[in-house]
Design goal:
354 residues, elongated, 22% strand
Amino acid sequence: MLYHNINNYLKRYLKDIFCGVSSNSPYKNNDFLRVLIDAAEHEDFTNNTSKRVEGPTGETVFSRLKNADFEKIKTAFYEILKIIFPLIKRLIRNRKVAIAFDMTEEPYYGKVEGLWIHSYCEARGSTGCFKYLTVSAVTKENKFILGNLPVRVGADTVALISELLINLRKLVVPERLLFDRGFDSYELIEFLQKEGVRYQILWRKDKWSKKILKTMKRNQVKEVNAKKSYTKHKSKNKLMVRFVFIKCYKRYNRGKAYDWIFATNVREKEKRFYVDKYKKRWGIETVFRVLDTIRIKTTTTNEIIRYFLNILCCLLYNLWKLGNLLGEHISLKNFVAYLVKIIESSINSQKGVT
């Protein structure tokens, strides 16, 4: 019953995004869904999948997106999330959860041009990448994707974080917002302070912070309140920032010792709590590696198609995690493979095939 419900969620997701299919069309949304989910299972291009399942071509599938935009895709994702996340919250028995923000890259292997292809990517052989800002709810054992936004070249990251924060607050009470070094921005801190949220940002080691670390002893914790500033639109903005320095701290006896610097408005009783809270977001990297096992391949430069495929994979991941919480302990790959069988069974049933 679980998988049939999940299939219904996916069909609703497509229905909310795709333009209508004419009555004389040989294909329905289930046919488009089978091509997409089969492509995810095989980490393949939709055109290859369409030949394998004898369904609509990739061009036909993506032609259904002609009236879609970023807002329509985001809304469709949140509509499904609003249905499943209350159940997820009951299952994880948490009223408040930590929230992690991450910037992810989707490699691109062609000519770099336009507003959506960034000129640098860590993936070998790539010429650039599409970027997405992702926000996830993180508990000790579970991670769920609560939002995902495309990032154009020169985008205002704080504005994107603001949009994600507005939507995630409709789903959950954030216990703390966690950010890695890529978000060490005074503008962001000022925004978070104005929003009245608890935050913890892993901060960069610059000349100022290195001088403070040099004065500290091993395992020492030092709090520093510093007046900082940033310039935006030719205006200088000043704010007070609280930093927590932890020198040569080894969380476990056999572990390595690290210097930690956090910009935070949270005060912990012990240094290990700062580190443990931050390490909750380390599992997010695992989430993205798992997502790579169901990545639908494409060479298109169309940002709408790219975003649609990216969000679809995020939705599949959340539905898989929901299944795990309900007792279906299988890999994401096997979960997607089983979904393909459910979709095929539904198509055959509609056609009267036994």
